[in-house]
Recover the amino acids of this structure.
């Protein structure tokens, strides 16, 4: 996993160069910005799955002020945040797992917006031998310094795959022999009764909404963690740790 120092960059050519080097997390463009380089940046961002947001001059100046950057800076109507990590695509990571003669174990994070939870999940995933996290561009916690800290650095070690459509990612995984398990506290089958030794992906949803109905319908099986007390649910990062340990235990015959 390549790591970088996150920073704000501005100017059309610097942003385009960083984008071509796969070092951009997100791009902000003034609504009225025009020109061939702007068009090239938008096209490259679409190809590499980097989100682009159109903003007003007022918003742009507020960002510059917050970052203590002089207002006279030649931003040329565009700003970009560089990424702390290099994001991957699951279509590139999965074949490599198979080539290494390993049994894939992947986590799909649906609506995990809390940075602390994301970091804790990444820590458990790395420790328990998961190969990748799949996260959406939108409605996902940002991988920033707080995420790195809460993961104890593990998020810099594990593959993070970013996608515009979790549904399509699930369909791709299923097509390539991955069994899809969706965490569901009400109707899932206890994790210990399921075979997690086979190529597996576990979908985890936010504590408020859970896994979306669209992904629940795509799953091969719903999975749950039995609890002694009749309580609402576990914290999502705790659930992730328990399910990952169950997979580790089964795979290592513990």
């Amino acid at each position: 996993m390549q790591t970088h120092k996150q920073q704000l960059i501005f100017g059309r050519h610097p942003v385009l160069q960083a984008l071509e080097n796969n070092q951009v997390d997100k791009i902000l463009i003034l609504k009225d910005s025009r020109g061939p380089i702007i068009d090239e940046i938008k096209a490259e961002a679409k190809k590499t799955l980097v989100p682009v947001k159109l903003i007003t001059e007022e918003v742009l100046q507020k960002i510059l002020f917050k970052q203590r950057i002089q207002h006279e800076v030649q931003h040329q109507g565009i700003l970009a945040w560089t990424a702390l990590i290099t994001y991957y695509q699951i279509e590139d990571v999965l074949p490599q797992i198979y080539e290494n003669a390993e049994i894939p174990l992947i986590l799909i994070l649906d609506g995990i917006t809390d940075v602390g939870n994301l970091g804790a999940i990444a820590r458990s995933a790395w420790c328990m031998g998961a190969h990748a996290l799949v996260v959406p561009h939108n409605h996902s916690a940002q991988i920033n310094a707080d995420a790195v800290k809460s993961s104890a650095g593990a998020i810099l070690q594990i593959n993070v795959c970013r996608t515009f459509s979790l549904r399509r990612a699930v369909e791709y995984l299923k097509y390539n022999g991955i069994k899809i398990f969706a965490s569901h506290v009400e109707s899932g089958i206890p994790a210990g009764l399921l075979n997690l030794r086979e190529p597996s992906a576990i979908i985890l949803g936010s504590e408020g909404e859970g896994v979306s109905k669209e992904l629940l319908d795509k799953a091969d099986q719903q999975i749950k963690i039995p609890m002694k007390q009749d309580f609402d649910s576990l914290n999502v990062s705790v659930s992730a740790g328990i399910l990952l340990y169950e997979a580790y235990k089964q795979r290592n015959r513990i």
About this structure: The mean pLDDT is 89. The first strand starts at residue 8 and ends at 10. The longest helix spans residues 236-251. The two ends are 29 Å apart (CA to CA).
